Amino acid sequence: MVEDGINTMDNKLDLSQYDEEQVRLMGEMCIQLDQNDIPIGAVSKKQSHLMENINKGMLHRAFSVFLFNSENKLLLQQRADEKITFPECWTNTCCSHPLATESELVEHEQLGVKRAAQRKLEHELGIKPEQVPLNNFKYLTRIHYLSPSDGMWGEHEIDYILFIKADVDLDPNVNEVKDTKYVSMDELKLFIENAEKTGTKLTPWFKLIDTNFLYKWWAQLDNLDKMVDAKTIHRLL
Length: 237
What we know:
Layout: H1 6-12, H2 20-25, E1 29-33, E2 39-44, H3 45-48, H4 51-54, E3 60-68, E4 74-79, E5 90-91, E6 94-96, H5 111-125, E7 138-148, E8 154-165, E9 177-183, H6 185-198, H7 204-218, E10 233-235
């Protein structure tokens, strides 16, 4: 459950310097977890992303979608300047959190996480749900990581990795997404390699997935069943 004193701190926190819509979204209720990915309560997005709480061990559930088109190119997004955590960073197609609601808490076949992914693909990128059916998402594994964004904010998540192959129509929400682009495997490797020289910022979870998993999964994009590791939580801390 939410730790004593966090609600009081949450209410007193001044977010007036941030974008109004992003502050509103900080009120959404995420799924608080124990170290084994067992839900133990609901906690606001604001509370779960404060380093003060993360440093006390607060952990929440997340997902990362990697969407590929029919040419096997990966859709990247650059997070909007308005984002409170990791603004302007390039990352995989969509990264967010299932909410502590009945429909997104469903554990069977990761249905709750897939519903959240479908919801956020539409919210961030304007991708209609019928273009990304729930049954087409392939759950690969989970990663557990922790990373500060700045002095106040950060991430501490168990992140469900979802792949999907679909040709989609994009209508990005400019409050969420600054830019998008499709890349081949070689183009992404070059993009990552040159990021430091070009001053391009990348999200920490994307870098971890890129370094540890992405290319071996990508190489088996049309045969992903053998890549699934549903039981392991990879601790990348």
